[in-house]
Amino acid sequence: MDSNGKKVALITGSTGGIGVALCKVLCEGGYRVVGNCRSAEKGAALQEELTALEHEIDIQLGDVGDFDSVGQMIKSIEEKIGPVDILINNAGVTKDKKFTKMSKDDWDYVINTDLNSVFHCARHVIDGMIERKFGRIVNISSINAQKGQFGQTNYCAAKAGIHGFTKSLALEVARHGVTVNTVSPGYIGTDMVMAVAEDIREKIVAQIPVGRLGSIEEVAEAVSFLVSDKASFITGSNLSVNGGHHMY
Q1: Contacts by 15-20 with C-beta closer than 8 Å and gap 24+?
Q2: Distance CA 61, CA 73 (A)
Q3: Which residue in 10, 4, 5, 247 sits closest to 135, CA to CA?
Q4: What are phi and psi of 211, to 5 degrees?
Q5: What strands, in cross-sheet order, belong to the sheet with 178-185?
Q6: Which residues are catalytic?
Q7: Full-prediction pTM beyond 0.70?
Q8: Which helix (H) or strand (E) holds 30?
Q9: What is the pLDDT of residues 185-211, one digit of tens each?
Q10: Which CATH superfamily is domain 8-241 in?
């Protein structure tokens, strides 16, 4: 907690669509939010946007794909704000290609940013959570981790790996008041998805039983529930937010 008794929530990948929504929802929920990103410019823009909404947010630069960088970031947060009570591993990238055209750099970049980062961040906060007998970790995966997707062997492998990580860590820390869960968004109306040609979007929506794309706010609200005290009996679970697109 910070000096005012607010739980400290660290959100990685905070400047993307879902990341921004997560920051807003958790600020509204009364948490002390720390947004992580690699770009000082994007971090400043996020801080300005939330300050205009009368939300307090701290920005911490750091590369979640680098174990030592994450360690320095966590140390800085602990010294300036307080220990991390809530970790939301939201950072993610794509490098989509058919497997026969995928380079090792394409593979390593996605695995490191989307999967290794989950280990890097969790490893640096878990001991403190266990010691304090409280912690919430939510890992953002994807519908494609469950059903697969053409041209995304690297991304699907990383996001599927998050499920195994979540279940195993949840077992290890359950008796210490720490929960670990996954949220798997389906097709959400992010800037990236909305930039897709309208006819392609229509084909995607036609496959979603509820008949529309999801919103970034719907994903953020699902995460907000999992980090709350109301979800203390939920751990090792995956919450699909996909409009019925894939039921597993």
Answers
A1: 15/39, 15/42, 15/43, 15/45, 15/46, 16/90, 16/190, 17/188, 17/190, 17/191, 17/192, 17/216, 18/90, 18/140, 18/185, 18/188, 18/190, 18/216, 18/219, 18/220, 19/90, 20/46, 20/49, 20/216
A2: 7
A3: 10
A4: 80, 25
A5: 57-61, 32-37, 8-11, 86-89, 135-140, 178-185, 238-241
A6: 155
A7: yes
A8: none
A9: 999 998 878 877 888 889 999 999 999
A10: NAD(P)-binding Rossmann-like Domain (3.40.50.720)
- Determine the residue type at 96: D
The residues, ordered by sequence, that sit 6+ positions from 184 with a Cβ below 8 Å of its Cβ are: 140, 141, 142, 143, 145, 146, 159, 238, 239, 240, 241, 242
Cα–Cα distance for residue pair 158/142, rounded to 1 Å: 10
Q: According to the model, what pLDDT value does residue 165 have?
A: 98
CA distance 46 to 87: 19
How would you classify the pairing of strands 178-185 and 238-241? parallel
